[in-house]
Amino acid sequence: MPASPNKSGSRPQSFIDRFFFDWFPAEALGAVRFYFGIGLFIYMNIQYAHLFTIDPNGAQFHFTLPIWYFDLLGVDHITQWTIYAVHAVLLASCVLFTLGKWTKPAIIALIISMAYMKGMRDSIAGDVHHREIPIVFCLIVFFFSKCDRMFSLDAKRKGWGPIEDWEASWPLRAMQVYIVMFYFWALVAKLRLSGLDWFEGGGRIQEVLLSRAVRDGFTSDGHVAGLSLAYQLAHHPSLVFLLGSLVFVFELLSPLALFTRDKRLIVFFLIGATIFHLSNYFLMNVQFFFYPFVFVVFFNMAVFHRWIKERLPSTGQAALN
Amino acid sequence: MTKKRVKIFLLVLFTVYFGAVFLRVDFFPLSWVPMYGQRQVGEHVHIVIGDKAARAKTGFIAERADGERLNITRHDLNVPSTHFRRFFHQRAYDRGPPQHRREREQLMPFNKWWYETLIGPDPLLTHNYALELLESVNKTLGYGPNDPKRIVRLEARVKVATYSKEELAAGDIADPHAKTAIAIITPTQAKIVSEDGTEIKDLDNASFAE
């Protein structure tokens, strides 16, 4: 692709430059960090809520299959008090990250405490979930960016000046690439493992619908005790095939979202992705339902922030300043 | 960072993350995103029909080395109910986690080479998930290998529905043809039997969906 001149017309820009450096204004990165942090706070509570059903005074469960880094470190059982302590660190780090106070150390603490909580959760039975993977990628990119230079308590206190547009643009574009490719790679994985058999008839979706619906059994009047909508849907393989085809198209075309600046198309794509996650939750109990909070990286959240501030009473406005 | 350094950083970052996709790495925080991607089409699909109330109330029927019988529930093991369900429906029936079931499936030669060289043998061949569950139960309850109170037998009961390919394709799933499958785990072996004591072997196939 031929290089094109940049805004000032002084030097030609390559495709890579336009793709990564010429997409967002400087104000966007800090604002995205702020709203990403709010979403992450809620998401983390959802992800590890199960661990708080463990009795603090009960037996210390010895893992059946420790996650690889627990295996390496010799962590082989649950120590209940650490769940509470590490979750407190996780949430405190999340608040600091959101507010932009000690932002970079907070990111490191977030990643480590998330890995610990994930290890505790996933090592019990050995099912390693994928719900933290895009989050960690985003946090790594935030760490290496200047996300603390604007929209943060640190910037106010230290009097940091504004950053350049390109410095705000590349981290958000990098996060977008991974978030979008996560869907595309999921399709590639289906084809690598199962080929088009994955979609045949009701396909894998019908099996999952059925197994999730009946895993808690039937009630005395013959209805499924769990996901009744999933059970009903499993009776209609043609409809399931149609839904599977929509998933195929959505995952196949998802990378296109990276190449449009048309807000309506991006919103259309993200609404589709959100419906996908909500459907997976309501039909199969897949716990990605709050994951769409990561979509804030697709928008200049500073504009949204101003919009919110204009509608708040003066006390609320002061809090958001 | 300058623009040049940012480009180098992004090159390294995406090489690592997308290289993991190529190499089929699925070790946190890297992944090739294979969730729910595995499906093996067979003539039949077996699906566990659970019983939430019985699982919570009765749990595993267990026996100590001294002959005492007891029940082991999620409260005894002190684990969340979702994890206990996995023990009860999957590990007791020697079904490993999805990561293990798909790790070596359909690997291209290079990926097969690096997995076997750096990671080792197929986890499906090196693990006995049912025996590992029994070991974990004893450790959790604080029983050593010679303790007379140690658990020497665990038993789980579920119903397993069997659907033919044709029934699934027609959506004819109202009658699940469910049979009781009893997982029996002792320190030396784990097996699955029917209510009349006949050993069940066909639940081992890959179409045992959870």
Could you please describe the fold and organization of this structure?
With 321 residues, chain A is an all-alpha fold. Chain A has a domain at 13-179. Chain A is built from 14 helices and two strands. A two-stranded antiparallel sheet of chain A has the order 1-2. In chain A, helix 2 packs antiparallel against helix 4 (80-99). Chain A starts with a strand and ends with a helix. The relative contact order of chain A is 0.13. Mean pLDDT of chain A is 92; it is low at 1-5. By secondary structure, chain B is of the alpha+beta class. Chain B has two domains: 1-33; 37-209, no CATH class. Chain B is built from nine helices and seven strands; from the N terminus they run αβαββααααααβαβββ. Chain B has helices spanning 3-23, 52-57, 74-77, 81-89, 98-103, 109-119, 123-126, 129-141, 165-170; strands at 44-49, 60-64, 69-72, 151-164, 179-185, 190-193, 208-209. In chain B, strands 1, 2, 3, 4, 5, 6 and 7 form a seven-stranded mixed beta sheet that branches. Chain B starts with a helix and ends with a strand. The chains are: A mainly alpha (321), B alpha+beta (210). The interface between A and B is large, with 77 and 82 residues.
SSE arrangement:
The complex is a heterodimer of chains A (321) and B (210).
Chain A: E1 4-5, E2 12-13, H1 15-21, H2 27-48, H3 68-73, H4 80-99, H5 103-123, H6 133-144, H7 153-158, H8 165-194, H9 203-214, H10 228-234, H11 237-253, H12 263-284, H13 301-311, H14 314-320
Antiparallel strand pairs in A: 1-2
Helix pairs in contact in A: 2-4, 2-8, 2-13, 4-5, 5-6, 6-8, 8-11, 9-10
Chain B: H1 3-23, E1 44-49, H2 52-57, E2 60-64, E3 69-72, H3 74-77, H4 81-89, H5 98-103, H6 109-119, H7 123-126, H8 129-141, E4 151-164, H9 165-170, E5 179-185, E6 190-193, E7 208-209
Parallel strand pairs in B: 1-7
Antiparallel strand pairs in B: 1-4, 2-3, 2-4, 4-5, 5-6
